[in-house]
Specification:
The protein is mainly beta and about 775 residues long. Among the domains are: about 1-185, no CATH class; about 200-375, no CATH class; about 700-770, no CATH class. Helices cover about 15% and strands about 55% of the residues. The protein has a 40-stranded mixed beta sheet.
Length: about 775
C-alpha cells in the first residue's frame, strides 16, 4: 500500500510537470510509456499501467487509472490495483506535501513471497522509507482488498480477503485507522507509531450484533531472518465473546474465551486461557493453553477444571433455554479447525458425582466432531468410554462405545431417577456389567455392531439395527444375536419394548445356549429362533426351545400378507412355569396374572397362530391341550404384545387340584370355568367369568375391569352354592358347625389407590352379610 501511494504521488508529479510542458489537451493513453517510465524511476520497481488514464488538474489534482501494476519479480512484493481514482489537496502539494483527500480503488491485491521459514520478503529499508514519505491519507477506500502470500518454491498460496476497506493516517508511519469487513464480519483496527524497538502497537476489534465479538491488543514488529526476509512477531492479549451482551441472542451456547498470546509468523501460542460458558449466568469455567496455526487454519485448546456444577448450569435460565432449543450445531461456521483436549476432575450431573472426565477431539470447520476419546467415571464407579465421529447436521454418532460397572445398581438407580425406564435399566440391578459395541446412532436409526455384553454370568454378542417409521414407510428392526448363561427368571419384561415394534418389520435370528430358569436350573436349555415379518406377513422359520428346566417348545410356519397360512407347534413341560415365564417376558405381560395351579402343573398344548379375519393385523392364537391338571381351550386375539380379547375354557376333574388342597373332600368335585375378555378402551381389559367350582357357581354381573397396572378396579361377581363349608375351610376356618352352609353372595369390586376393596352382600347359612 505504501508503494501504491508513492506511485500515485509520483504520477501526480509527473502529470503536473507534463501539464506545464505540453498543450492543455493531452491524450494520456498516448503518453503511457512516459508515465510507466516515470513511475519505474520513482519507485525503483517495474511499473505498468493498463486501460484509461484520466487527469484533472483543477480545482485539485485528480488521477484515474484503470489498472496499475507494481513489481514483476515473483520473489519480491507486487501490487495489482484496478480502477484507481486519487485526489490530492492542492495547497499542501504546493509546499511539497502529499495529502490524499479521497482515494478510491475497485480492487487491490498485494502478493507477498514467503520463504520456507515463513519470513516475508519485504524491502529492508521499509521503516525508513515510511518515515521519509510525507504522505497523509484522509480517506482511502478499497472495495476489494486481497493479501496473497505465496511460497515460490512450492507454489502454495494463502489469501486474506477484505471488503469495503477504509484507511486513514496523517503519515505513512502511522498512526493508522482501518475499517472493513472480512468473511461478512466487520472489524476495526487502530495503530500507534513504531516505538524505539521498532514495534507497533495495534488494537483490533470486530463482530457484534449478528456475529461473535472479538478483541485483540498487541505489539508487533518485523524480525530479520537469515533467509533474506523478515518474520512478523507479536505479543498481547485477545478475547472472543459469543452471545449476549455483545452479540444478539441466537441458537448457540454463549461463552467467552480470552488469554495472552505470543506469535511468530503464522504460529500463535496462548497462555492463561480462560473459557467461561454462559458468562451471564451460572458460568462453567475452564483454564489452560492454546495454539493457532494461521497457515493451516487450525487451532488447539487444552483446558481443565477441578469441578463443574452442570446441574446448576442446566437449571439456570440460560441452561433451560439450551435444553429447550437443543444443542447448537457443533463447529458450524468455525473459521478454523479446533483440536480440543479437555479434562475435568469432577462434575455434578443429575444429582450424582462424575469424575475423571476427559475429552480429546477435533471440531471441524463445517460442523461435526472427530472424537478421539471421551472417558468418564459415573455412579458406582461405572466407566464410560466413547470415540468416533459426531456429525452435526443431522446429529449422528458413529464409533465404539464401552461401559464397565462392577456394581450396576447405582447406575441403574441414577438412570431411573433421570426418567430412563425399560428392560435395559432393569438389568442394572447390581450384577457386573461389561458392554462394548460399534455404534451408529442418529435421530431415526440405531445400529449396533460387534456387540459384546456381559451381565453377571450371561453373555450376549451380535449385531442389531433399528430404523424408525417415517411417513409412508414402516420401521424395521434387524438383529442377529448369540447368547449364553441366560436365566429366564432374572430377565425383565420385554413386552413393552417388543410391543413398540408392532408397526415395524422384523428380522430376528437368535441362538442361545446354557439357558436356565431360576438359580437352581440345570442350565442346559437352548433357544433357537429365526423370525421375519414384513407388513402383515409373518414367517417363523423355526422357534425351538429345548430342555428349559425340562420344558420344550417347537413352532414354525408362515402367514401371508393376505392372512392365509398359519404358524403351528407344540408346548410341553413337566412344570409350566419356565415356558410361561418366557412367554410373559417376550409376549404378553398379562401371563403373570395366571394362578399358581397353571404354573406349577404340567402342560401339553397344541398351538396354532393365524390372522383374525384374514388380512387383519390382529394375531389369533388357538391353544388346546392339558394344563393345570385338567384341560385348556384358549382363543386369544393380540396385536404385538397387547391382548385385544379372547375366550378360554378351563376344566379339572377335581377343583382341589387348582387350590393345592386334595385333603378337603368337598373340593374333590369337577371344576369348569368359562372366561371372556375384551377391551372397552386402550388401557382397560374387561373380564367376564362364568362356571362352577366344586358346586360353587360363579357369574359376573358386571365385567371385572383390569387396568394397566394389572389390578381389578371395578366389577361385580355373584357366587352361589349349596354348601360353602369347603371354601370356608380353604379360607382358614378351623371349626365349622356341622351341616351344610348354603350361600348366595355378591362381591362389588372397587379400587382405592393401590388397595382393592370388595363390598360383600348376601346370605350364608341363612344369615345376612353386608359391608
Amino acid at each position: 500500500m505504501r508503494d501504491l501511494l508513492t506511485a500515485l504521488a509520483g504520477a501526480v508529479i509527473l502529470v503536473l510537470v507534463a501539464a506545464l510542458a505540453v498543450p492543455p489537451v493531452i491524450d494520456w493513453q498516448a503518453q503511457r510509456a512516459l508515465v510507466d517510465r516515470g513511475l519505474t524511476r520513482s519507485l525503483g520497481v517495474p511499473a505498468r499501467t493498463d486501460g484509461r488514464i484520466e487527469v484533472r488538474l483543477l480545482p485539485s489534482p485528480r488521477l484515474r487509472i484503470d489498472r496499475l501494476h507494481l513489481g514483476a519479480d515473483p520473489a519480491r512484493p507486487t501490487l495489482d490495483a484496478r480502477f484507481v481514482k486519487a485526489e490530492i489537496a492542492l495547497t499542501p502539494l504546493l509546499k511539497g506535501e502529499f495529502r490524499f483527500t479521497e482515494t478510491r480503488i475497485g480492487r487491490a491485491e498485494i502478493k507477498l513471497p514467503v520463504v520456507a521459514s515463513e519470513a516475508l520478503r519485504i524491502p529492508p529499508d521499509l521503516g525508513e522509507a515510511l518515515r521519509a514519505r510525507d504522505f497523509a491519507i484522509e480517506d482511502l477506500h478499497v472495495q476489494q482488498f486481497l493479501v496473497t502470500t505465496q511460497v515460490p518454491a512450492t507454489g502454495r498460496t494463502d489469501q486474506l480477503y477484505v471488503q469495503d476497506l477504509h484507511l486513514q493516517t496523517p503519515a505513512l508511519v502511522g498512526p493508522w485507522r482501518v475499517e472493513g469487513t472480512s468473511g461478512g464480519v466487520p472489524f476495526r483496527a487502530v495503530s500507534g507509531t513504531p516505538g524505539a524497538d521498532g514495534r507497533l502497537a495495534v488494537k483490533i476489534a470486530g463482530g457484534g450484533d449478528a456475529h461473535p465479538r472479538f478483541e485483540a491488543d498487541a505489539r508487533l514488529g518485523l524480525v530479520p531472518t537469515e533467509s533474506d526476509g523478515a518474520v512478523i512477531e507479536s505479543e498481547g492479549s485477545a478475547r472472543l465473546v459469543v452471545g449476549p451482551p455483545t452479540q444478539a441472542a441466537g441458537p448457540y451456547l454463549p461463552f467467552s474465551l480470552g488469554g495472552s498470546f505470543k506469535a511468530r509468523g503464522t504460529q500463535v501460542r496462548f497462555e492463561g486461557v480462560e473459557l467461561a460458558i454462559d458468562p451471564g449466568g451460572r458460568a462453567l469455567r475452564l483454564g489452560g493453553t492454546g495454539r493457532l496455526d494461521l497457515r493451516q487454519w487450525r487451532a488447539g485448546l487444552t483446558l481443565e477444571a477441578r469441578r463443574l456444577d452442570l446441574d446448576a448450569f442446566l437449571t439456570s435460565p440460560e441452561g433451560q433455554n439450551l435444553i429447550g432449543r437443543g444443542l447448537p450445531g457443533a463447529g458450524a461456521g468455525l473459521p478454523a479447525m479446533l483440536d480440543l483436549d479437555l479434562s475435568v476432575g469432577g462434575a455434578v450431573l443429575g444429582g450424582e458425582e462424575w469424575s475423571n472426565l476427559a475429552l480429546a477431539g477435533t471440531v471441524e470447520r463445517a460442523g461435526g466432531l472427530l472424537l478421539r476419546r471421551l472417558t468418564a467415571t459415573g455412579p458406582g464407579d461405572a466407566t464410560l468410554t466413547v470415540s468416533g465421529q459426531v456429525e452435526a447436521a443431522p446429529l449422528r454418532l458413529t464409533g465404539p462405545v464401552a461401559l464397565v460397572a462392577a456394581d450396576s445398581d447405582p447406575l441403574g438407580r441414577y438412570l431411573r431417577r433421570l426418567g430412563v425406564e425399560g428392560p435395559l435399566t432393569a438389568l442394572l440391578d447390581g450384577r457386573r456389567v461389561e458392554a462394548a459395541a460399534d455404534l451408529a446412532a442418529a435421530a431415526s436409526s440405531l445400529s449396533v455392531r460387534n456387540l459384546r455384553l456381559a451381565l453377571g454370568a450371561a453373555r450376549v454378542t451380535g449385531n442389531a439395527r433399528y430404523t424408525a417409521a417415517e411417513a409412508g414407510a414402516r420401521g424395521r428392526f434387524d438383529a442377529q444375536i448369540r447368547a449364553s448363561g441366560i436365566d429366564i427368571a432374572a430377565l425383565p419384561p420385554l413386552g413393552t419394548t417388543l410391543g413398540s415394534l408392532r408397526d415395524h418389520d422384523l428380522a430376528l435370528t437368535l441362538e442361545a445356549k446354557d439357558v436356565r430358569y431360576g438359580p437352581a436350573g440345570s442350565g442346559n436349555g437352548t433357544i433357537a429362533a429365526s423370525i421375519q415379518s414384513d407388513g402383515s406377513s409373518l414367517v417363523v422359520d423355526s422357534l425351538d426351545v429345548t430342555d428349559l428346566a425340562g420344558a420344550s417348545a417347537k413352532l414354525s410356519g408362515r402367514i401371508g400378507a393376505d392372512g392365509t397360512g398359519r404358524v403351528s407347534g407344540r408346548l410341553k413341560a413337566p412344570v409350566a412355569a419356565p415356558l410361561l415365564g418366557l412367554l410373559e417376558r417376550v409376549w404378553v405381560g398379562e401371563i403373570r396374572l395366571l394362578p399358581a395351579f397353571l404354573r406349577e402343573a404340567p402342560l401339553d398344548l397344541a398351538v396354532t397362530l393365524d390372522r383374525e379375519g384374514g388380512a387383519s393385523d390382529a394375531l389369533r392364537s388357538q391353544i388346546k391341550g392339558s394344563a393345570g391338571g385338567g384341560t385348556l381351550d384358549l382363543t386369544l386375539a393380540s396385536r404385538g404384545t397387547r391382548i385385544e380379547g379372547g375366550t378360554a375354557t378351563l376344566t379339572a376333574p377335581r377343583a382341589g387340584l387348582w387350590f393345592g388342597r386334595t385333603d378337603i373332600s368337598g373340593l374333590q368335585q369337577p371344576a369348569e370355568l368359562h372366561l371372556s375378555a375384551e377391551r372397552p378402551d386402550a388401557d382397560t381389559l374387561a373380564l367376564a367369568v362364568n362356571g362352577t367350582l366344586a358346586g360353587l357357581k360363579l357369574a359376573t354381573a358386571r365385567p371385572i375391569l383390569v387396568g394397566s397396572d394389572a389390578l381389578p378396579g371395578a366389577g361385580e361377581i355373584r357366587a352361589a352354592t349349596a354348601d360353602l363349608a369347603p371354601f370356608l375351610t380353604l379360607a382358614g376356618a378351623a371349626r365349622l358347625a356341622p351341616g351344610v352352609w348354603p350361600a348366595d353372595l355378591t362381591f362389588v369390586l372397587a379400587k382405592d389407590g393401590s388397595d382393592i376393596a370388595a363390598d360383600t352382600t348376601g346370605t350364608v347359612a341363612g344369615a345376612a352379610l353386608g359391608g
